[in-house]
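Researcher:
Attend to token order:
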Amino acid sequence: MNMIPPFDVVTFITAPWAEAWESSLWIVVMGFLVNAACGLVGSFLVLRRMALVGDAISHSVLPGIAVAFLLSTSRSSGLMVVGAVGAGLFAVWLIEFIHRNTRVKPDAALGVTFTTLFSIGVILIALYADQVDLDLECVLYGEIGFVYFADSFALLGMEVPIPVLRMAVTLFGLLILVLLFYKEALVTSFDPVLATSVGISARWMHYGLMLSLSVVIVFSFESVGAILVIAMLILPSVTGSLLSDRLAHILMMSGAFSALYALAGLHLATWLNCSPAGAMVVAGFLIFCLAWIFSPRRGLLAQIRKGRGSFTPDVSGKLNPGLGIKN
């Protein structure tokens, strides 16, 4: 049994644009917007060594979505966003509360919180799924392939799917926040004590980042679901960190990688006849592998050329001055 379809250049390269170019266009645009927004927030999470907090929030907002659905019975209701963001912020608070008031370590508190809240969400959906129009698989995995068929809004003479427009506004808002608070976010990420001593509230910056993360995850649900969004939060930033030490460069590279993920994922999904969102994550991992192997300074080949013979990652848990991210 041949599990991988035979490779055909026409099917792989031209078919997505020759047969349904409008659908392919909006899939790529939506994929870019989701990856870029996730990469923008994820870069600060990785810098703070909080990458798995995105995992916790992405699972923890499920009960908020379920409750909002039960109250509003509408997938487009603003109450759904409020409920999901509220659940995400509650998860962050609960993780910190458990860690500070018990002897439980942060990673264990994170695991307890997100698994419990996620389970509550699954139970709510199982009990009341017949009362709301909620597809659990869509919440978990998303379906970016249907974005073209969503309700649209007339903008500049063209019909723009509302999910794409909403994600574009989210990304634009994130860009504005990064431009306004870049230095504050950078200082609090490296040294919260120093930030506090110069008058920057590390706590408010932390909760601002968590709020931004929750909003991005909620608006990404419809396209990539709660599971695949985790990879999109991490892959752009960690790939960029293999190629540069400067955070500004990593953020810009995250945008470029996001475009590559979206375009390569579309063609990979066409070839394998699979989910475009899943294919975008696979494309992102392949690009990460290429960066890891061929990076001029930190790549596997560069390490071998320097005579080390093997690549040994820094697992000390401390920032290495030679590998640290700079302003």
